[in-house]
């Protein structure tokens, strides 16, 4: 396959020149310096590398860039608009849904994909959808709470 | 007793380096200090709990600067407040809690305090961020330094106005006189000053009851950078002209290089192959080329046969050394005979991995013989020592910088990745970034020690434990001692030979020791037909332990009717200055045998609470992390190879494993604050084991308890 030469990232067409088999994660991180998307396991088992492609979640560590060229990619850097945080980002802060923060980008992107297809998910739906994302610091219940806050289903603000 | 030495026996990975290294000395301090006002915390204050008189001299003149600087607070001539500490932020939020402590004492808002952490050129020597020591040791000293800084500044302001210092106050980072008719900023007071003081021995700090910033739920400092992806971890940094490194790993632990063919890799454009003894690595201008070069190297390794899981516990027993420092309690030769019942049981714990989500990473750069390394470690100064040893250069030629890091849990004490990156960088003459793969993390870091624990005890039918003999083989000495009121105790830790590389882990062996002790207590309660809570209370005199146990039992509803189809268990304990009790409720899937932890109530007491929000988050996180070690985490190995070293094979706690978690924080405002990063992890495994027994009558004495579920229900 020929090299990939342009990518649509966060609403902007960006020039690259990479082998189409290169995982999207490294094109973002090494070639475009969008380092908010993280490496965690390299086999789509932790979700740290989650981005949106056409609004749906994708594990960028196992996605060859050739497969998604021409599609709209959103990374964590694209969530803040004109200095205003995305409701999920606000909610993660409000619920203190992080400790070391390394999983946070992937969590927020996975949650965004969920809310794209289900604006008011139940707690069980949140748990099911987020189950493939790992937080080693163990902030799961706060992340669930943050998603509930962002979707307007939270019963009370987190402690 | 000296806690540092007690910790030492299981910090197997810390084989090198002196205990103290007073490198940030008077000379370096004066180089870093350009003007303004500085308050110094000597190392001795951080190491020894009792404050030593540092010989406070006159209030104006610059006094003798101590050689052993442990931390310092600087108010520069622009009025910026900077705190310099060698501690590391790894998600435990000490950047936030230390900022709270300083802002409180200086009477300034949080946002003008900047904490400079873990940079060996800028911050004083620090042993490392472990052992839950930041809150009990660093924070009170920084408080004193900030309080002394405030008093010094007030004196200076009073002198400008020619008034009594007692009439000057700080309100919102401004100095005001008695009727607020005059005011000065921090900058206006600090300008033109060049004043250095060691914190006086008698400096008074704000009483806990008067805390207004500490004790409150201040949000994570720089939180916005983490939710926007802006924060740069080591893995995210880049340097001009940086190359990407890869290491050719041995086939197994202890493997020796027999032969290698690097020609094909060397022929690749831009690739440098580095061969030094058994070390083989490559650098390339991009990651993909580096991987291709690594794969193109043909190597033949030879590894000796080594023990695997199936023989692990027998191996640890067989290779056990004599006990380290037994401290028998009680007299008489055989209280066992005086008792009504005796019990002897053996408990085991498996090796488990820290699996920090940010793997080990380093960027190394050599400039004119000076080495700079950015790396995620809990011991920046320890890593600097390792680099000095590896490259035979003095430590003052090395700078280690630790960006706020993607967690550690005790797993990032060492500098392997830093050394590898530095070796590659030296050979290629350019900065090199090396990020370990998840598989490398599993195979080439270190594990929480496995262990065997034997307990012999005796008990009267009324529930009084009369004798307690406890031997821990290999897993470690933390949490070994009991807080129960046992009249006769013989408690010992025995080193052994570990087939795998082992080291610190959140809570150290306190998890293993609490597991054995608290499951055994449950077995004794069963033996004398007493309720597990009642039985424990019968053997507790310690008021703090009693308080957390009762708090957990009450919140759990222990005296209420049991939920149908669920088992319940409880455990309690003490470690690193804090007290904990955990009650758990479990169910077992009738078809698959899968154990589900349905509900956890944990009460935790660590003295005066510094930040309720972050404490709650820490305790909850510890409970979740504990689920893995309790139920399913278990490193599989044979002949020096890790057999389940990736996330698709190594089961970690996930969203669906989450129980309903209820936390009771017991705030003891009259007691000094203890660290909280570790101890909340120790209670879950025994509570769950006891709950599984309650439900199934199957007594499990090994951690993990049920990696495949409960197969043979009794």
How do the helices and strands line up, and which of them pair or pack?
The complex is a heterodimer of chains A (159) and B (714).
Chain A: E1 4-9, E2 12-18, H1 24-31, E3 50-53, E4 56-59, H2 65-68, E5 72-74, H3 87-94, H4 104-117, H5 123-130, H6 140-151
Parallel strand pairs in A: 1-5
Antiparallel strand pairs in A: 1-2, 3-4, 3-5
Helix pairs in contact in A: 3-6
Chain B: H1 3-8, H2 26-32, E1 36-42, H3 43-47, E2 69-75, E3 81-85, H4 94-106, E4 113-117, H5 134-161, E5 169-171, E6 174-176, E7 183-185, H6 186-190, E8 194-198, H7 223-227, E9 243-247, E10 256-261, H8 263-266, E11 272-276, E12 279-284, H9 287-296, E13 298-302, H10 312-318, E14 341-349, E15 361-367, E16 370-375, H11 380-391, E17 398-401, H12 416-428, E18 432-435, H13 438-444, E19 451-459, E20 465-473, E21 488-494, H14 510-527, H15 532-538, H16 543-556, E22 567-575, E23 578-588, E24 595-605, H17 612-632, E25 637-638, E26 641-642, E27 660-665, H18 684-696, E28 702-703
Parallel strand pairs in B: 1-8, 3-4, 9-18, 14-28, 16-17, 20-21, 24-27
Antiparallel strand pairs in B: 1-2, 2-3, 5-6, 6-7, 9-12, 10-13, 11-12, 14-19, 15-16, 15-18, 19-20, 22-23, 23-24, 25-26
Helix pairs in contact in B: 4-5, 11-12, 14-18, 17-18
């Amino acid at each position: 396959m020929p090299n990939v030469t342009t990518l649509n990232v966060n609403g902007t067409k960006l020039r690259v020149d990479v082998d189409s088999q290169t995982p999207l994660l490294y094109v973002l991180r090494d070639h475009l310096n969008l380092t908010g998307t993280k490496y965690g396991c390299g086999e789509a088992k932790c979700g740290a590398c989650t981005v949106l492609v056409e609004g749906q979640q994708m594990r960028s560590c196992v996605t060859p860039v050739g497969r998604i060229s021409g599609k709209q990619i959103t990374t964590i850097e694209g969530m803040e608009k004109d200095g205003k945080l995305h409701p999920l980002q606000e909610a993660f802060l409000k619920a203190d849904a992080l400790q070391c923060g390394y999983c946070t980008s992937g969590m927020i992107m996975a949650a965004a994909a969920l809310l794209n297809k289900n604006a008011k998910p139940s707690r069980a739906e949140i748990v099911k959808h987020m189950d493939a994302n790992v937080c080693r610091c163990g902030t799961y219940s706060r992340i669930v709470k943050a998603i509930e806050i962002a979707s307007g289903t939270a019963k009370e603000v987190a402690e | 007793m000296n806690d540092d030495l007690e910790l030492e026996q299981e910090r197997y990975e810390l084989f090198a380096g002196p205990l103290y290294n007073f490198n940030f000395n008077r000379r370096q301090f004066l180089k870093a200090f350009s003007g303004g006002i500085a308050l110094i915390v000597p190392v001795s204050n951080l190491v020894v709990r009792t404050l030593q008189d540092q010989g406070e001299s006159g209030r104006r003149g610059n006094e003798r600067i101590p050689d052993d600087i442990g931390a310092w607070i600087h108010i520069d001539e622009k009025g910026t407040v900077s705190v310099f500490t060698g501690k590391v932020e790894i998600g435990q939020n000490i950047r936030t809690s230390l900022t709270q402590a300083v802002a409180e004492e200086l009477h300034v808002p949080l946002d003008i305090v900047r904490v400079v952490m873990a940079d060996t050129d800028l911050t004083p020597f620090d042993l490392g961020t472990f052992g839950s020591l930041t809150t009990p040791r660093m924070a009170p000293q920084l408080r004193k330094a900030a309080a002394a800084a405030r008093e010094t500044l007030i004196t200076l302001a009073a002198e400008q106005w020619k008034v009594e210092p007692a009439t000057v106050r700080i309100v919102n980072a401004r100095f005001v006189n008695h009727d607020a008719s005059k005011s000065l900023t921090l900058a206006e007071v600090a300008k033109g000053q060049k004043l250095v003081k060691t914190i006086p021995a008698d400096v008074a700090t704000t009483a806990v009851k008067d805390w207004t910033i500490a004790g409150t739920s201040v949000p994570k400092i720089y939180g916005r950078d983490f939710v926007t992806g802006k924060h740069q971890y080591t893995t995210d940094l880049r340097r001009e002209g940086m190359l990407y490194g890869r290491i050719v790993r041995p086939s197994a632990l202890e493997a020796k290089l027999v032969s290698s063919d690097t020609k094909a890799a060397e022929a690749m454009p831009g690739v440098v192959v580095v061969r030094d003894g058994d070390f083989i690595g490559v650098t390339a201008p991009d990651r993909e080329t580096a991987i291709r070069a690594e794969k193109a190297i043909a190597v033949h390794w030879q590894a000796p046969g080594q023990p695997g899981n199936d023989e692990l516990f027998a191996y640890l027993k067989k290779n056990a050394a004599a006990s380290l420092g037994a401290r028998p309690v009680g007299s008489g030769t055989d209280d066992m005979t005086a008792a009504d019942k005796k019990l002897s049981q053996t408990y085991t714990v498996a090796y488990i991995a820290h699996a920090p989500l940010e793997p080990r990473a380093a960027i190394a750069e050599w400039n004119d013989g000076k080495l700079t390394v950015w790396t995620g470690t809990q011991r920046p100064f320890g890593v600097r020592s390792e680099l000095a040893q590896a490259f035979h250069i003095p430590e003052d030629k090395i700078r280690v910088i630790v960006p706020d890091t993607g967690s550690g849990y005790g797993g990032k004490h060492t500098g392997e990745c830093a050394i590898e990156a530095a070796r590659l960088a030296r050979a290629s003459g350019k900065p090199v970034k090396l990020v370990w793969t998840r598989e490398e993390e599993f195979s080439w870091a270190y594990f929480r020690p496995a262990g065997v624990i034997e307990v012999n005890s005796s008990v009267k039918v009324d529930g009084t434990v009369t004798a307690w003999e406890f031997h821990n083989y290999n897993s470690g000495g933390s949490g070994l001692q009991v807080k129960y009121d046992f009249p006769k105790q013989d408690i010992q830790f025995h080193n052994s030979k570990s087939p795998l590389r082992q080291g610190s882990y959140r809570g150290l062996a306190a998890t293993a020791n609490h597991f054995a002790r608290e499951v055994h207590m449950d077995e004794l309660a069963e033996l004398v037909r007493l309720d597990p809570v009642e039985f424990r209370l019968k053997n507790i005199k310690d008021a703090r332990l009693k308080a957390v146990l009762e708090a957990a039992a009450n919140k759990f509803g222990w005296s209420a009717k049991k939920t149908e189809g669920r088992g319940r268990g409880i455990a309690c304990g003490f470690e690193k200055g804090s007290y904990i009790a955990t009650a758990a409720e479990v169910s077992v899937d009738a078809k698959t045998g899968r154990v589900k932890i349905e509900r956890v109530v944990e009460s935790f007491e660590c003295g005066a609470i510094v930040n309720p929000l972050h404490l709650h988050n820490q305790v909850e996180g510890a409970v979740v992390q504990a689920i893995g070690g309790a139920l399913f985490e278990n490193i599989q190995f044979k002949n020096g190879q890790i057999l389940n070293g990736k996330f698709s094979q190594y089961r970690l706690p996930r969203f669906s494993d989450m129980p309903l978690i209820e936390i009771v924080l017991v705030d003891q405002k009259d007691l000094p604050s203890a660290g909280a990063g570790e101890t909340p992890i120790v209670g879950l495994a025994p509570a769950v084991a006891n709950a599984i027994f309650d439900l199934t009558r199957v007594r499990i004495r090994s951690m993990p308890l049920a990696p495949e579920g409960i197969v043979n229900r009794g």
